[in-house]
Please model this.
Amino acid sequence: MTNVTAGKPKIVPITGAGACAQAMRQINPDVVAAFPITPSTQVVEDFSAFVANGLVDTEFVTVESEHSAMSACIGASAAGGRVMTATSSAGMAYMWELLYVAASMRQPVLMTLVNRALTGPINIHCDHSDSMGARDAGWIQLYSETNQEAYDNLVMAARIAEHPDVRLPLMVCQDGFITSHSIQTMQLEDDKAVRAFVGPHKPYHSILDTDKPVTWGALDLQDYYIEHKRGQEQGMRNALRVIQEVSDDFAKTFGRQYGLFEDYRLEDADIVLVALNSAAGEIKEVIDEMRSKGEKVGLLKIRSFRPFPYVEIGQALSSAKIVTVLDRSASFGAHGPLFTEISTAVYNYSPNQPLLLAHTFGLGGRELTLRHIEHIISESRICLDKGEVGNRQGLWVNVRGDKL
Amino acid sequence: MVRSKDTISGYFEIRWHGRGGQGAVTGAKSLAECVQGTGRNVVAFPEYGPERRGAPVKAFNRFCDTYIRIHTPVTTPDVVIVIDASLLPLPAIRDGAREHTIFLVNIEKTPDQVREILGLENRVVTVAANSISHKLFKREIPNSTMLGAFAKVAPHIIGIDQLRDEARHVFSDLLGADLVERNLQAIQQGHDLCHIG
Model:
């Protein structure tokens, strides 16, 4: 075991990608297999320096592709290791087949996903098409507004993913460039405190345990496939409870409290915006401004998108009069993935039936400024006053052609 | 409380202009790391476009006593730092400038001459950062000199003495003792030799 320093937490200026690399250093995983891709490159770059400088015990596997990176992660995890990786966009798309394999083999692989648009046309900037495309792969998805949240989520990740009631892979998402490349002030916890919080990894039916030989990744046809998938689903359902338990323990240890979602000035809000990741920062700024002018507006920021906390969100939106959902990815020919989940939560678990308004924004890194958010809120107010969303439904924000 | 009264966002905001390879991004990063030492919240980030040497690039800082929640590019800067004077005629330099906005320019001209190029009446501070860095580093690395001049322009954000102390810590992680010393000299000269107008 490498030496870790015990001391006080440090307030540091650091990028979101750098913060995740620091969390990985503190976690000291057994194996990291990764193929660098913009904008997650710095995660892998920094971590490989930690390996080279002997700051971690990790076996760093350089691979020729993301497909191989995830394959190596799954193999190392089945061998009994704690395993981490990082990727973005096309890198994750190239892992596609293996994302499902990791989840169905119940391997708690941990990933930093720095969100970036999928290619077509090629683009390196932020949207959520990569993680939203992978939403059905069976990975837990935690989203992060700030560098601090990305770091904190990654510190919590191992205990959630490896929990015996869960045993599923987990990705911590943050916005490409917007947080990954932005230096922000945050609190870096003490190495020893993080290592103590995360705890040792307990291998589960390791293929290297020759006294108890097991088979991993076998053919699984009509006779048992669906039972295994049902088990996978149960792990996801259990994860809702485990995420909250680990988050509560994190709050006791480090003082920052997280839930499955964050409600910001929601209690008496008529207009509620829903968003993921960094856009929540701008939205909070505008909410404070509009609240001071008497507009009752609030934010619901999703942290856990998979599993999705339908009941809790339905209840949290129970007094809203209009819920405007901002999706940073498109599902062509349908409303955005966040909107459909919110609609399900509201329809089934909200005692009242607020208006629901779908907007798409920010594809390929298109800015969402304070002014755009003000406009979205005032448009939501118009819908509310009219009692219907009408032809505003499905408008894209800050795009040539649509009026928002 | 470092909270600008005049910018829309309420944060103290800086916009850096340079050309790819000249260090605007590194400058914003170094300044944030130094101001962090004052106990404030800091943010530094570049504008990522097509990346090529010589193309105009922007970088941004925000400083505040409270947590900085916004990530959008700075549009109403309190200070505009121009590392490459050939960019001065571009409209992007003047974008969002308000009455109180200060222009800090790496140029061997007087503030009056710069005001004429800009077509603005704003406060201008000039510093010959290229020739200062030539003497100290034998090449053009204007960053540290600009940091020193910034301490002259905005001592309420960070004063020269604290800037030197913080910069020593920041640079010591990256550079050898000799280069750290020369960067500190560049900071001091930027502070002492800039022209305020």
About this structure: Chain A has two domains: 10-254, 262-392.
